[in-house]
Design a protein that fits this description.
- The structure is a single chain.
- This protein is an alpha/beta fold.
- The chain folds into two domains: 145 residues, FAD/NAD(P)-binding domain; 118 residues, FAD/NAD(P)-binding domain (3-Layer(bba) Sandwich).
- Helix content is 25%, strand content 27%.
- A six-stranded mixed sheet has the order 5-2-1-9-20-19, with no helix packed on it. A four-stranded parallel sheet has the order 13-12-11-17, covered by helices on one side. The chain has a three-stranded antiparallel sheet with strand order 6-7-8, with no helix packed on it.
- Helix 1 runs parallel beside helix 8.
- It is globular, with a radius of gyration of 21 Å.
- 35% of the residues are buried.
- It is an enzyme of class 1 (oxidoreductase).
- Keywords: FAD, Flavoprotein, NAD, Oxidoreductase.
- Belongs to the NADH dehydrogenase family.
- This is NADH:ubiquinone reductase (non-electrogenic).
- Pfam families: Pyr_redox_2 (PF07992).
């Protein structure tokens, strides 16, 4: 349990995800007081959520003061964060509010698509899946493809739409090829070069023409920082500092590695070390441990273009290592 003392600097952490939990766990509480503001008391584990189609949480490994609230504004001249219920002061602030679904302003996305970002999204998805129907998924990134492998069946065929000319943009050609072969083997249809410009209850509207909708339509095409962090325009330096005594990590920033749990965790561990060493430490550098696509019965792993497979039963052990 963390003991709050008046003679220690107060560290306020906003958000409780992969990055902030790693930061709090690594922070020397003999040197700092720490408290966390989060809209939820536990960390939602999205990779497991996709595999199980059920909410999966990772509770903190020890008692930590989590204040359930929503942050609205930062008053950095006062070292203060304004939340819905009250304001909180700090000596050091770590912003780790994660991300939300990005619809890119495309008409009809919010009204006609299912998402997979929160437990509320998952409830809506499970309700839509009660009666087997053809599924269309927009986005051939990791989330879209893992969901396609999870949901595809003879009575519930899945079609994936992707705006790019390849699946898994940003992944190695070897990984793209390996996953393409598995998609073909499992008869999951993928339509490339399909830029979506709108959607209604009957069809996806793409730049090349309409694509009919006969069942659930799922949107996995992108993320963006939350409203709180978008208004701050966070631009971290090489030590993840965005303003005097203010740091940021995870999906709410860009330019310091991919938007993955692996990177967020490394950033959290780095910041903890930076704080513990009195801010005298090397610049942050992301170390790629491998990229993973969970295809339900196995894990396909890409380590610098070398593709390896692991049985699905080793999922929990493998993720513990790579994250």
């Amino acid at each position: 349990m963390f003991e709050q003392r008046k003679n220690k600097p107060n560290v306020l952490v906003i958000g409780y995800g992969w990055g902030s939990s790693a930061f709090v766990q690594g922070l020397d509480t003999n040197k700092y007081n720490v408290k966390v503001i989060s809209t939820r008391p536990q960390r939602l584990n999205q990779p497991r959520m996709i595999n199980d189609l059920a909410p999966s949480y990772s509770p903190p490994p020890y008692r930590i003061p989590i204040i359930q609230d929503e942050c609205l504004a930062l008053e950095d001249t006062k070292n203060q964060v304004v939340c819905k219920t009250q304001s909180h002061t700090y000596d050091y602030l770590v912003i780790a509010t994660g991300s939300e679904v990005n619809d890119f302003g495309i008409p009809g996305i919010k009204e006609n698509c299912l998402m997979l970002k929160t437990e509320e999204d998952l409830e809506k998805l499970n309700s839509a899946l009660k009666t087997p129907k053809p599924i269309t998924i927009a986005g051939a990134g990791p989330t879209g493809l893992e969901l396609a492998f999870r949901l595809n069946s003879p009575t519930q065929p899945v079609t994936v739409l992707e705006a790019s000319p390849t699946i898994l943009p940003g992944f190695s050609p070897e990984m793209q090829s390996a996953i393409t072969n598995l998609l073909e083997k499992k008869q999951i249809k993928v339509l490339l070069n399909q830029k979506i410009v709108g959607i209604d209850q009957t069809c996806w509207k793409t730049a090349t023409g309409p694509i009919p909708i006969n069942g659930p339509a799922i949107w996995t095409c992108g993320i963006r920082p939350t409203q709180f962090t978008r208004q701050l325009n966070l631009q971290p330096d090489s030590k993840l500092q965005v303003r005097p005594n203010v740091y940021a990590l995870g999906d709410c920033i860009r330019g310091h590695g991919p938007p993955t749990a692996q990177n967020a965790k490394q950033q959290g561990q780095y910041l903890a070390t930076l704080f513990n060493k009195d801010f005298k430490y090397d610049d942050y550098k992301f170390v790629e441990k491998g990229r993973v696509i969970d295809v339900t019965d196995r894990l396909i792993v890409d380590i610098n273009g070398r593709i390896t497979e692991f049985p699905g039963i080793l999922r929990a052990l493998f993720y513990k290592f790579i994250e």
